Amino acid sequence: MKTQALVMVSALGFALSGCPISGGTKYTVGGTVTGMSGSGLVLQINDSDDLSFSANGSFVFGDRLASNAAFSVTVRTQPSNPSQTCTVRNGSGTINKVSITNVIVSCTQTGRFAYVANRLSNTVSAYAIDPNSGALAPIGGSPFAANGTTPTALAVDPNGQFLYVANSGSGTVSVFSINAATGALTATGLGTAAGSSPGALTIDPTDHYLYVANLTSNNVSAYAIDNGTLTQVVGSPFNVGAEPASLAIDPNGNFLYATNFTGKNVTVFLIDLGNGMLSNISGSPFGAGAGPVSIAIDPSEAFAFVANEAENSISAYSLNASTGALTVDPGSPFPVGTNPESLVVDPAGRYVFAANVDAANQVATYAITPSSGALTFVSAVAAGSVPISVAIDPTGQFVYAVNFNSNNVSAYRVGTSGALNPVPGSPFATGTQPHAIAID
Fold first, then answer.
1. How many independent structural domains does the chain possess?
2. Domain that holds residue 17
């Protein structure tokens, strides 16, 4: 039996690294599909070898390619019922004596549900999103107990199956399963221990790893995800700068960015895709303004933007997709009217939406200059008192701002110029001291 097992493991490792067949060693191309809720997705490699999908998960094309051969993974047919748009990342290149395993296919549709963390209520409010208007309607059973104290940050996994909640007061991460039909939340168990004052979290695009920024222990906890179950990654937690306040992962899933509020900089880690471990990249940390409290990365992976709360500015960087390094853009930082609290970039990479920037209690739109990343003010719209967190629906139609002092959520439709127009019925009531919002 032991001999048989060894043969199987050896064969598997050989298949993953390359297989010698007629004409020389050949290599495979594969990756991960996330977010697919419909049916009918078909991928191709080099305009052939159709691969159909009925569920999310890993995949490998049957065609094998020789070293130095070019590969290009494309979507032949998009999912339907419901209609979705799937995009491919890390999908093209040249084989270099190793199989390709990091192709990411991300599928999205109009946001279905919104979740808000209420710090003082120790609850999570849940809403159904009207796909036509963007209005929010409370879900039956909402608000749900946070299963921890002082819930501060939220993240929905790329497949829309689980909601993760960082509880700053109890130093834990709560995990809830999401009912696909209703959006209702069910706790999956007791909270998982994190560091001191966990205040931000993010999930890699393949849904393999969760990262949590621990504000007062100055580190990042890393967990492997297995159907909502969290297991701490070897070496976790990983040290960062002083008071890590926000996290972001580049769209290709290679680098983790952490803004350090007191440190006035951004730490950049390389993510080991095989085990989730983090290592600092060359040049990290990169300077920011005073009080960097939020970071957003544009979908093209060309730019990153940081809100400097204590300096009344937004820093803009060019992002090196190969190394993860940040280079300050000309004209950066861009001054704003008051303390910026939160940033988000629309899915097309055209606009930055920023809370509390042009004036207090507003949400502003900035146009991104494609050639440089420079920001140009477009317009601003009224929000509630202290808009502290913003989110955008996956299709870019609606923007939501959580208002910390007025205990509600402002909802906006995105106009053709990027200007925000209040949704009928907005703002929508939340619990006490809402601090974060996540869209599924």
1. 2
2. 2-107
